[in-house]
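Team,

Forwarding the record for the chain on the shared tracking sheet. I've put the sequence and predicted structure together so nobody has to dig through attachments.
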Amino acid sequence: MAPTHVLRCCQRGLAWIPVIFIALVVCWSYYAYVVELCILTIPSTGEKLIYLVVFHLSFVMFVWSYWKTIFTRPANPSKEFCLPKSEKEQYEKEQRPETQQEILKRVATSLPLYTRTGAGAIRYCDRCQVIKPDRCHHCSACDMCVLKMDHHCPWVNNCVGFSNYKFFILFLTYSLVYCLFIAASVLQYFIKFWTNDLPDSHAKFHVLFLFFVAAMFCISILSLFTYHLWLVGKNRSTIEAFRAPVFRSGPDKSGFSLGFSKNIAQVFGDQKKYWLLPVFTSQGDGLSFPTRLVTVDPEQPTECPQPGVLDKGTVEGPAEQTSPLSDSQNRLLGNDYHGEEDHKEIDVLKSDESEAITISIESES
């Protein structure tokens, strides 16, 4: 036990090395820009003032969003996704996977679950001993199940998921702005030092190296930033982009897509004045999400089904009870999607009883 505990502590300590490296680079860039460039190199007082104000604005927002990404604890499944004591004891005693699945299905009837494993089974984490909510995955580095897990990022030594995905996007945004501003404002002095238009001094090394470092980070961050903006617009996580979530009707990468504007709102919230601030405004609870099982995806060109006409996957899939829409889901499926109608009814057929259930979704006024 002792060697394992020591090894785990060493691994946790080593995991902070990338964060410490970034922190050291940022601290050096602050000194190089403020002291070596603005104070010792730039002759114009007005230019110094403008550069320092813009630099500190981008620096504060960058550090703020980076801090929130690192120290915001990943959200975990709630207790309702844990097996009751009696069911848990029965599950652990049972050796047959089929019987274990029957136990999980009984518990899952009261949970808002739409996704399954590739084999169509209930997703269960033996390590955390919880039924996995939709879009939840187990992170081996954090050793926990993370709601709407995107990926584990070594540069923040944290799992990026529902609780801090907005902070991660803002971290990429402000780090890109920070590097772009440094590279753009340093460029003219980089050229002057390079062509010997300015006399050699101890500031020369800092200015030259500052431009190269800013340009290098700018190029590397730009591709990652662009990719995650695309993911936000499609309402996908990195995991879902590589492995489509499996619904009862089959795999569907766009299963959680609500249209571009609502996909953006799901991450950044309804109030645009908070979009650029590293404060939590994401919609929902991370446990359940609107899917195309309860609404038509507006990104798809297919026509709305007529009453009684059902998707093939829905008919062939097993009949399972699902929870009604939460308040966050109703808000996401609000006025923009339903237009002028006060109510919209969707017919769903239970396959083994062949009876229709009507779900009424009321728009918010």
